[in-house]
Design goal:
alpha/beta, Nucleotidyltransferase, domain 5, DHBP synthase, 8-stranded mixed β-sheet
Length: about 575
Amino acid sequence: MNGKKKNYTLGICYCETSSATLFENGRIISAVSEERFSRKKYDPSFPLKSIKWILKNSEIKLSRVNQISYCWYKGFDKNLDSLYEDRKKDLIRNKKSYKIFNLRKNIESQRDRKSLNKLINWKKNNLNKLQAKKLKIYYHHEAHAASAALLSPFNNGLVLTCDARGDYESLTLSFFDRKKKNCLKKIHSSTSSDSLGFFYGRITGLLGYKPSKHEGKITGLAAHGNPMKAINLMRKMITVKQGKLRSNLGDYYKPFFSSYNSKLIKEIKRFRREDIAAAAQYHLEWCLIKFLKYHFKKNKIKSQINLMLAGGVFANVKVNQALKSLKFIKNIFVQPQMNDGGLCIGAASLSIHENKQKILPLKNVYLGPEVNKEKLISLIKKNRKIEFYRPSLIYKDICNDLYDNKVIGLVRGKMEFGPRALCNRSIIYKTSDKTVNDWLNLRLKRTEFMPFAPVIREEISKHAFKNFSKKDISLNFMTSTIDCTNKFKSNSPAATHIDQTARPQIVSKSSDKFMWNLLKEWETVSGEMSLINTSFNVHEEPIICNEQEAINSLLKGIVDILYIENLRVSLR
């Protein structure tokens, strides 16, 4: 740093997938979700373990932090009525809908007040009066927008946030200009009563899965159905009118995921689940596209523009592919931790920007704990069921194991932040095995129709995917699908979904030298263009964090071989 004073900003989000992050002089140096320490999937607890690890890892005390940034539950008493004013006018004549509307509002107010009190208690117990002045609170969708915009490689463009709810909003659209102090200019917002996130979550629940957790299953299932068979039912639930999201707050759209009207349940049962999923996916894409087209025209945008995305809806990789294909979109950036866990990044980056400090774009998400090598060796030596050695030619050894049909657990470097494993906490396997979706999903206790994602070298991606561009950074983080070429489909059937798309992680020699070398060796040995890369966890468990969890996975038969840093670990 050449003697430059270090300025630290701690970001905290207390929500589903509570998380914390630390910036040093505008550069993100660590970020982790509470679930990785507690081992509770989507842990909503206040991220005490995450904060503790971040401070310990950086070798600083809380008192050394210059700024503490928090998001959600800002000014909900003052803001609530104004946010709902637009919907009040529409519903005032409909007593049934208005009752539902007010129920929603009251429940949200009570929930948010309770959560804010927990933040206040943490402040009292951990911050003195001087430090408490460092605490800044931001709106939920404001933080989402900042997490995408300020961490993107772009200096300007449009920012779209979309989720179920946060501070009574479900969607915002903003202009972004990095050069301005107030870098985000919001031009539209929708209330949580008009929520595409709740719509998609509602479908998730009605099809027998867990809302706010299993929406990805609906995206995978959608490719197996016909969207037109149930599309009219989707339109009854929510639509876009004059650039605004409008839900039916009567029979088809009650508050929260659990409030399903008997009429809606009856209609859902008329269709195959695949067709319902397909219709929901189609309608979600249609709503967002129609919304963007309206506001693009309204704001007289006459040239291509960068688009930045954040919020749980953009965990939907098919939506992201649809949006980046729009003719008026120049480039796209999806915040890799697009869910609420990424709010800590947004809150921290906002305060940094307000303090006129430069924020460096996000290069990777390797921001969590590393393997403790001494502890690893100790664990291995204590267990007589396992053996290990240090391969002199590690790429050849891994390829030999893959060629022998071994499922490999890959654990190296810093743990990824976000829902995607990007080869530091991953399970890898060959992509030529057409049966892998059945038996490996069964082993991992996952749904059989969920496709596996490939990891592939940048240099050959142009042969694997249609209209591939190195500028499409969404593919570096597995945040979008792309259409496969015939060559890839025949070469790597296990990584090609039924709709002829894939959700790849593109690696270059500069971004990940280890994986680049491994993939090149695998191409030479097998002739395959890619490897399966799926997260190192079983269903309903968080991605593994440390060496103990990796070894436990080996002992349980989740993987056949472990490669932890420079060690090959296997059962005797």
